[in-house]
């Protein structure tokens, strides 16, 4: 190692950023190089001197003032215009957005008396993509024509204002409502059910779909490849309705032993779910993997910190039942 | 064993913050306010130390969180929210430092709490303390000399030194925040320490 490299590594080492083997090499070099030893001395002196300008905690008044000023600024923000809100939702959902390629171009006249945009109902954008999948899987299913009602706008893909004019060009994609009947084995039906489990605003629809998907998983029908297991884990983690989460948990039960992600999802539910019934169900489901170290860690934590005394009890019982594995 | 424990802690810590972020993205002001409360102390601490001025720190706080509010929809969970917020703050700090550089003349000025400038020439010890060398290394004077030396660094060098030495972040994180590589951050740190040592050589 030459001294130039050593000087750089001295800095890295002083800040704990030198990998161990290089640190060892550096020490060997320093043992035989007084000049580099001096260099290190100076760097350590610099670190001490630099602390004569210490980092101070911001005082409470500063924090309060800053927060107040921020709140006022946020309150004063104008509410978002309808196309800004749509644009934001589009950005948020971009990953999942693949609307049907039926695009229409529309010229809008925007003037002082704003034209008649009418009432747009924004449908779920993913439904549009699924509409395509359905068409390819027609064999087993009977399909009916679109029900009454005009095609709905799924999303707006661009808005361009002609310069120096009142004219605006809006590109949007449309969604056509459809209906389908079929058996649970049909991949198209399954895909729709998975969509419904995440996307529906109605708890009843989510409940039905998660219930059906969970039943598929419990029956052992191919549930991993088609992403059904993932859909159940998402429902368990994020659904606001306890009934839905409970059904998801039941569906995942057979896989807690073989799939580490399922195990972790159940552990997360045990730690974080607000509903005591679900946390209790989670403990029961973890029986096949009770001896697992990370499961025991979580059970320890739950035994001490869960709000519900029954749950703390059950956790302790489980822990005492299964011997520690070295 | 340690790794698994931190996995549990991460699970516990991550889930509520992810929920908050999603809710804030969906438009919840309450969720956004909760996120602000989680990070405001660190943001102010950094801005305050870097700028030396409560007024400037407040401005950076304001701009940073307003930006966060406006662009939270773009947050994609590929990095941690901590890194995302810090990236916004460090960029604002860099802008501040650059503005100061162009405004400042050769004479280095330091702002005290009330915003008045301290002329460093005036803080040179008088005849009496020359006879007592220990007094010269008075902490206050030392502090001012350090601040002056820091202003001689380029904004990026100053930023990297601040984040590494004063805020204790890892070089890899610093690289992410400044949109560069760990290697570049390391080189910048090296240049910064070299310059600082030259500046402070007279203080031995």
Which helices and strands appear, and what pairs or packs with what?
The complex is a heterodimer of chains A (about 325) and B (about 200).
Chain A: H1 3-14, H2 20-31, H3 34-50, H4 60-75, H5 82-92, E1 103-109, H6 125-136, E2 142-144, E3 152-161, E4 167-175, E5 179-181, H7 187-199, H8 203-218, H9 228-238, H10 242-252, H11 260-272, H12 276-285, H13 293-305, H14 309-321
Antiparallel strand pairs in A: 1-4, 2-5, 3-4
Chain B: H1 2-25, H2 29-51, H3 54-71, H4 81-103, E1 109-111, E2 117-119, H5 127-130, H6 133-136, H7 139-151, H8 155-166, H9 171-177, H10 182-200
Antiparallel strand pairs in B: 1-2
Helix pairs in contact in B: 1-2, 2-3, 2-4, 3-4, 7-10, 8-10, 9-10
Describe the structure.
The complex is a heterodimer of chains A (326) and B (204). Helices cover 55% and strands 10% of the residues of chain A. Chain A is mostly helical and 326 residues long. Chain A has a 3-stranded antiparallel β-sheet. Chain A has a two-stranded antiparallel sheet with strand order 2-5. In chain A, a hairpin with a 5-residue loop joins β3 (152-161) and β4 (167-175). In chain A, 25% of the residues are buried. Mean pLDDT of chain A is 76; it is low at 95-128 and 136-149. A two-stranded antiparallel sheet of chain B has the order 1-2. In chain B, β1 and β2 (117-119) form a beta hairpin. In chain B, α1 crosses α2, α2 crosses α4 and α8 (155-166) packs across α10. Chains A and B meet through α1, α3, α4, α5 and α11 of A and α1, α2, α3, α7 and α8 of B.
The coarse overall form of chain B would be elongated
Q: Extract low-pLDDT stretches of chain B.
A: 105-109, 117-133
How many structural domains in the coordinates of chain A? 3
CATH uppermost class of the largest domain in chain A: Mainly Alpha
- Output the CATH class name of the domain at 1-108 in chain B: Mainly Alpha
Reported by name, the CATH topology of the largest domain in chain A is Leucine-rich Repeat Variant
H/E element sequence of chain A = HHHHHEHEEEEHHHHHHHH
Rg of Cα set of chain B: 20 Å
Major sheet summary line of chain B: 2 strands, antiparallel
